[in-house]
Amino acid sequence: MNFFSAASGPTPSEYVLHHLEHFKIGEGIWTLHLDTMFFSIVLGALMIWVMWSVARRATSGVPGTLQGFIEVLFEFVDNSVKETFHGPRQFVAPLALTIFTWVLLWNTMDLIPVDYLGLIAYKLFGIEYLRAVPSAEVNAPFALSLSVLVLIVIYGIKGHGLGGYSKGLLTAPFGKNPLLWIPNLLLNIVELISKAVSLALRLFGNLYAAEIIFVLIALLPWWIQFIPGGMWAVFHLLVVPLQAFIFMILTIVYLTLAYEEH
Question: 136: which DSSP letter?
Fold first, then answer.
């Protein structure tokens, strides 16, 4: 049954399941969620274009509204990095700004009414399934958190040298006894993996739950939807930047621990 053209309309369970299905190709571990990739790339390109446009037109006089907003955002992120990370910030500050802005745009997609983009995609391109919130799909947060995990290792080596970092993996936290090297190494590997997993699942869990609630609200009669939907959207306006901030600040903290920790 086609979801958009069915005469009788979907049942509640069909409606919910439809909105949890991706536009994808492939099967099993080779499945690609094209909608997640598309919106992630488009939002990333939008972020780069806006930042580039503002930087190109920046003035030392009275800034415009967009330039003023970008300057406030940049100062906020830069101060967050400066207060936490005490090593060279030439890379960490732009990284934090990129993560915060990109995740913020991901999360903001959840505020678009659940049926709008799907209906447009179906009418224009015949695409029946579409999910527009990258952070509500577990692969996108995990991909970002794995990138952070790689950077944690790189900054650990950068801060202590390859020998010092390797020594730390083998001798902390239980001591330098060679019999304890393997337990130390295993524990440190678990710690590294848990950082990436918790970073991804925190973002995914919050946005997935928010998406489910929006879908359930959309099942209500149209004349009553705006009351719970409006209330949840207002609350979600707090969740959207908060989750982006948490992802950014934890990234900074993890890099700081890797770079400075003895």
Answer: G
Catalytic residue, from 139, 147, 188, 202: name it.
202
Residues 6+ apart with CB under 8 A from 93: 77, 78, 81, 82
Selected catalytic residue, list 53, 177, 194, 198: 198
| Domain enclosing residue 116, as ranges | 12-260
At 153-179, the pLDDT tens digits run: 999 999 999 999 999 898 888 888 888
| Tokens standing for residue 236 | 């979600």
| Residue 6 maps to a domain | no
**Predicted TM-score (pTM) of this structure:** 0.92
pLDDT higher than threshold 90 for residue 226: no
Concerning whether 57 is annotated as a catalytic residue, the answer is: no
Task: Say if 135 falls within a structural domain.
Answer: yes
Residues 6+ apart with CB under 8 A from 10: 1, 3, 18
**Total domain count for the chain?**
1
Q: Indicate if 177 belongs to the active site.
A: no
The per-residue pLDDT for range 32-43, each reduced to its tens digit, is: 999 999 999 999
CA distances from 14 to 11, 121, 130 (A): 5, 19, 15
Q: What is the pLDDT of residue 185?
A: 93
206 given a catalytic annotation: yes
Decide if 2 is inside a domain: no
